[in-house]
Each structure stands twice: as C-alpha cells, then as structure tokens.
Amino acid sequence: MSEDFIIIGITLMVLLPALYLNLVLQDTKAMSIMKKIFWPLIKLKEWVDPNHWANKIGEKSGAYDKARNSKMRKWGDSLQGWKWWTWQIMAGGITLIICEFLLNMIGYSILPWRW
Length: 115
Fold this sequence. Notes:
Order of helices and strands: HHHHHH
Number of helices: 6
Structural class: mainly alpha
Helix content: over 70%
Shape: extended
Number of strands: 0
C-alpha cells in the first residue's frame, strides 16, 4: 500500500463522520450548543487572519466600491480575446517588475534564484 492510499483513508475516516454529524445535527439544539462552544475559536481565527481585517477595512472605507466602479475596471472587463490576455500579461508584468524593484531596495526579492 502506498502512502497516498493511507493518507486518503485517514482523510475519509475523519471527514465522513464529520459530514454525517453535520447532517444529523443540523438545525438541532446540539448544533446551537456546539456553535456557542466554538464561538471563541471562530472569533480567534478571524482576529488573527489578515485577510479578515483587509476585507473589513476595504468594505468600511469604501475602497472596494471605488475599485469596483472605476473606469479602468469597466474597461478591463470589456476586453475580449487576445486584447484581454495582452492586458493581463502586460499589466501583471509591469506590476511584478515594480514590486521586484521596490523589494530589491530593501534587500528582498520575489525571484527564487536571487534568494
């Protein structure tokens, strides 16, 4: 037996009972008790997650709405075919070059052969 089958077996042995419990306990008193018990852990997960804070700040400040409604976004969404690919490659390439230049100024690099 290879390691892959062992890992898959362990994963199934853990996930299948969890899915079964989810179906059985759904909308029951036990599920509400479990939610109350795990609430601190869920909040801790949110508080230490930088993505949670970025989304919260972006939504509250209106930066996400401003980005969604920008002229450049509408123009980029209207591109099709080779024009879209050219825009993605050129804008992404320029962004990576600028990031690499700025990171080199402080002694870092995003290129693995320069570590």
